[in-house]
Design goal:
The protein contains 9 helices and 14 strands. The protein is an alpha+beta fold. The strands form 2 sheets. A 12-stranded mixed beta sheet has the order 1-2-3-4-5-14-6-12-11-10-9-8, sandwiched between helices. A two-stranded antiparallel sheet has the order 7-13.
């Protein structure tokens, strides 16, 4: 096994990864050198498998032919960086060879289809109360972000965050109350997520911020996707309100650092 840098990633390594697997765009963000992470391959010149660990949240992404014999070594290697998460379709053979007794084992919903016919984003945005302002995120607003630390750690610099992501901030008297933001683009796709200050929840603000962000993404030619735990009912409800549909369920398991 070889630990390689993002600069050493080859087309042969990229071709091992299936974009149709759950949240795989995040793996490509690592492979393309946009966000932080670690990469392991069996052979640099003729790889038959590779594994990516997303640097901040610890999810592993598998590419190529992974066998049970290499799983202990792969987990042992990545545990040096922290905990490990794995997401895979329910019928994926990988489920049978993952380590036993994860510290968390649950289900997540992956939304990759959004119907513009079902949801009018402009109508949702127009519901903004008059005492709030909806503005594009800039460096000043990013420094107030609820996810500032983790986002900065992932992208390494504010300049990279501004270059690779889109964000919409909902403010009241210059106070950030809700923020919708994307991940980095890859293959024409951008992830959408949102955080609302706990004192401003259940007011429909997340819907408005996300609608404006998705509208911006689609105007720039990107398709968007949404991902949330199955039991996160408010997030599932919001996704569907925004027009996401035909969600796919997958298993997500987590192992604390051993």
């Amino acid at each position: 096994m070889l630990s390689i840098s993002q600069q050493e990633v080859t087309p042969e390594i990229l071709n091992l990864f299936d974009l149709n697997n759950p949240t795989m765009p995040r793996a490509f963000n690592v492979l393309e050198g946009i966000i932080s992470g670690q990469i392991l391959v069996d052979n640099l010149t003729q790889p038959s498998w590779a594994v990516v660990r997303e640097g901040i949240y610890g999810t592993l992404y598998f590419g190529g032919q992974i066998t049970s014999s290499v799983i202990p070594s792969i987990f042992g290697h990545f545990f040096q960086f922290g905990g490990i998460g794995v997401g895979c379709w329910l019928d994926n053979p990988l489920n049978k060879i993952l380590p036993d007794s994860p510290d968390y084992d649950g289900f997540t919903l992956y939304f990759t289809e959004r119907s513009s016919a079902e949801t009018n984003l402009e109508t949702l945005v127009s519901q903004l109360p008059s005492n709030y302002a909806l503005v594009s995120r800039d460096e000043h607003l990013f420094k107030k972000s609820f996810d500032y630390d983790s986002t900065l750690a992932s992208f390494d610099s504010i300049e990279n965050v501004m270059q690779y992501t889109l964000g919409v901030s909902l403010v009241q008297d210059d106070y950030l109350v809700c923020e919708a933001a994307t991940g980095a683009p890859t293959h024409g796709l951008m992830e959408v997520g949102v955080t609302t200050h706990e004192n401003y929840r259940q007011k429909g603000l997340a819907t408005i911020a996300c609608a404006k962000l998705i509208e911006t993404c689609e105007m720039q030619g990107y398709s968007t996707w949404w991902d949330c735990a199955k039991q996160n009912t408010p997030s599932v409800r919001l996704a569907k309100k925004l027009g996401y549909q035909n969600e796919k369920e997958y298993r997500y398991a987590w192992w604390e650092k051993r």
